[in-house]
Write a sequence for this structure.
C-alpha cells in the first residue's frame, strides 16, 4: 500500500475542500444524520455502512462487495484512482475506516481518514451544511487492482491457527470476547489463542460520547498493542463480529507499520455460526 497520508486534520481539509481532486465521504450510520448536517460538499456514502456485497435476494452478505459492485460505487461517487478521498463518521471513524479498507483491497491508495471525525470538524469551528451534494463526474473508470493479501477466509484461518508465526487479534467488546454477549450468533466465545484488545482503546476518549475521539499518538497505540502481546514479527489476522470494527484496527496497524496484516471479513458472523470452528471462553 502506498498511502502514507493515513490521517488528515480538520484544518487541512478546510483548506482543501474546494480542490478539484478531493472528494469527502460522509460514512455515518444513519443517512438522516447527513441530511441534518454534514461537511460542506461531502457526499453521503451510498448503501449500508458495512459496505458488503449484496446477495441474490437483496440481503447484505458477510463479505466485501464484488469487484463490479465496487466499480459501480466509485462511479456513483465520481471517484477514480487519482481522487484524494477523505472519509469521516461520528462513531470513532470505524465506518470511515471500513470504507478505507474496502478501497484499499480494490487498489485505491489515496484514501485518508479525518482525525476526530464529524465531532473534530465541529470542534474546530468549521462550517456545516444541510444541502445535498451532486457527485463530480468521474473522469475515468476506476481500475481495480485487487490486493488479496489484505484478507483471509475461514478455511485459510483454520489452516494457520496452530502456526507459531501467526496471531489472531479480536477487537470486539470484553463481553463478546468472553461469550457473555452472543451478538446474535449461535455460539459465543473467542477463537482459541486469540489476543483481545477492543478497537476503541486506540481512541483518545474511551466511552466518552461528549468528547472528540482522535486517534491516539502512535507511541501510545504501539504500547497498548505490545502490552497485550501483538507482535510485529508475526502475521496478524484481525476480526470482530462483521469486519467493520476490525477494519479500524487494520487501519491502525497498517499506519503503525505492522507487516502482513489481514482482515477476516466474515469474522464472528461466520465463525461463530459454523459447527466445526473452535471457540473457547
Amino acid at each position: 500500500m502506498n498511502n502514507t497520508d493515513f490521517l488528515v486534520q480538520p484544518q487541512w481539509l478546510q483548506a482543501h475542500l474546494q480542490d478539484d481532486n478531493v472528494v469527502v465521504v460522509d460514512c455515518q450510520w444513519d443517512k438522516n444524520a447527513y441530511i441534518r448536517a454534514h461537511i460542506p460538499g461531502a457526499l453521503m456514502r451510498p448503501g449500508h455502512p458495512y459496505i458488503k456485497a449484496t446477495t441474490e435476494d437483496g440481503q447484505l452478505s458477510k463479505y466485501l462487495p464484488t469487484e463490479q459492485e465496487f466499480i459501480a460505487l466509485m462511479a456513483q461517487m465520481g471517484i477514480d484512482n487519482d481522487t484524494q478521498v477523505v472519509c469521516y463518521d461520528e462513531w470513532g471513524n470505524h465506518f470511515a475506516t471500513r470504507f478505507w479498507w474496502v478501497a484499499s483491497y480494490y487498489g485505491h491508495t489515496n484514501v485518508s481518514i479525518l482525525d476526530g471525525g464529524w465531532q473534530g470538524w465541529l470542534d474546530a469551528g468549521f462550517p456545516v451544511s444541510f444541502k445535498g451534494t451532486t457527485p463530480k463526474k468521474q473522469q475515468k473508470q476506476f481500475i481495480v487492482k485487487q490486493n488479496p493479501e489484505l484478507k483471509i477466509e475461514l478455511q485459510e484461518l483454520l489452516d494457520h491457527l496452530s502456526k507459531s508465526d501467526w496471531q489472531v487479534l479480536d477487537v470486539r467488546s470484553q463481553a463478546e470476547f468472553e461469550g457473555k454477549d452472543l451478538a446474535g450468533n449461535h455460539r459465543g466465545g473467542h477463537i482459541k489463542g486469540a489476543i483481545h484488545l477492543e478497537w476503541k482503546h486506540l481512541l483518545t476518549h474511551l466511552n466518552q460520547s461528549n468528547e472528540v475521539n482522535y486517534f491516539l499518538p502512535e507511541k501510545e497505540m504501539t504500547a497498548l498493542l505490545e502490552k497485550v502481546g501483538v507482535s510485529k514479527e508475526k502475521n496478524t489476522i484481525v476480526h470482530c463480529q462483521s469486519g467493520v470494527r476490525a477494519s479500524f484496527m487494520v487501519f491502525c496497524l497498517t499506519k503503525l507499520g505492522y507487516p502482513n496484516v489481514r482482515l477476516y471479513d466474515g469474522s464472528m458472523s461466520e465463525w461463530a455460526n459454523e459447527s466445526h470452528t473452535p471457540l473457547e471462553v
